[in-house]
Design a protein that fits this description.
globular; about 350 residues; 9 helices; 4-stranded mixed β-sheet
Length: about 350
């Protein structure tokens, strides 16, 4: 059963288009395998937020024994993974490193697990008077890569190779992970009831719908009113103790050039490099890795509107956007160059 279809493409660049096309292909195969199933639920483009962190899951499979998170990657060329689990790929004969999609899916899994755990009482029932939990259910991650990619499986660690699958085999792999829906009960696998499956699906749909609606409202918010020509001009800057309101700040801000903002807001903390950077995600949030000196720099530039340093960074496609926790001003922190996402 498909609870949420793949969102329509809304980008304007070639790389984003092919990424979306890859996700559409995965969605197609999942629909053919599970579209008529009452026990397996599929959610595409699931947006979740918990504890100040946000993530988008390309494809989530919910089944009676747990969850499968599938990260889609459009890759043209060859893929290698070394013994440390570090990924690299070729593009027109040139090799470069790339963030591990398996690790990315694992971080999404951790966030989803925390979100469901905090709402478990409204989602799951009790067994012998004891509240059941989601943590001990089966949690799996997969990476679905383009069918045209060349995978060097023999050089991959087994625990990675088992999680990497080409698009046309992703539904078959998901079916293998789920296993027998009847035989699992005899083997003592913890399972969700039909009612619990419905509760989880409904909760996640409402959660992502609320987040998307909030994002649309922010995009569609009317621009601030221009000050009246008759208003008295400010003859001198306000003293430091004067608290500027959000409306006053928005009305006085000049339009910002996002390209310039990306260049000036984020540079390598060690060597000052601004161009040869790669956006990544780690234990402490988003950061960039310098291709010149290999140093890591956190995506924590101060808010250009108020100077506040407490911000929250989110990623959509190649763009990393920050939201100031004090004045809620949003600004582009970094845009991933082509071939680096």
């Amino acid at each position: 059963m498909i609870l949420k279809e793949k969102d329509a493409y809304s980008g304007n660049d070639e790389r984003s288009y092919y990424g979306h096309k890859q996700e559409q292909d995965v969605a197609f195969h999942l629909r053919r395998e599970f579209g008529d199933s009452e026990q397996v639920r599929i959610i595409h483009d699931l947006v979740i937020e918990h504890g100040g962190e946000r993530a988008q899951i390309d494809h989530l499979v919910i089944h009676p024994y747990g969850f499968i998170i599938i990260e889609s990657k459009s890759i043209v060329g060859e893929v290698q993974v070394n013994a440390e689990g570090e990924w690299s790929r070729s593009y027109k004969g040139n090799w470069s490193g790339m963030p591990s999609p398996i690790r990315q899916a694992e971080l999404q899994q951790d966030l989803l697990k925390a979100l469901l755990r905090d709402h478990v009482e409204q989602l799951l029932g009790k067994l012998l008077g004891i509240q059941t939990q989601v943590g001990h259910r089966e949690w799996r991650t997969l990476c679905a890569v383009s069918s045209t990619a060349i995978l060097h499986r023999k050089k991959m660690p087994k625990n990675v190779a088992d999680k990497v699958v080409k698009t046309e085999f992703v539904a078959k792999k998901a079916r293998e992970l789920i296993g027998s829906l009847r035989g699992g009960l005899l083997k003592g696998r913890a399972w969700f009831s039909q009612r619990e499956l419905e509760n989880i699906g409904t909760f996640l749909l409402e959660h992502t719908a609320a987040l998307q609606a909030r994002a649309e409202q922010q995009v569609q918010a009317p621009p601030p009113q221009e000050p009246s020509p008759s208003a008295a001009p400010v003859s001198e800057p306000a003293p430091l103790s004067y608290v500027v309101t959000d409306a006053e700040r928005a009305a006085s801000e000049p339009a910002m050039d996002t390209a310039l903002q990306t260049e000036t807001l984020l540079t390598c903390k060690q060597c000052g490099e601004a161009d040869n950077l790669t956006g990544m995600y780690g234990q402490y949030g988003y950061y960039v890795k310098c291709g010149k000196c290999s140093a890591n720099t956190a995506m924590k530039p101060p808010c250009p509107a108020c100077g506040w340093r407490s911000i929250k960074v989110s990623k959509e496609g190649p763009c990393y956007t920050a939201t100031c926790k004090k004045c809620e001003h949003q600004y582009l922190v970094y845009r991933q160059g082509e071939g680096r996402e």
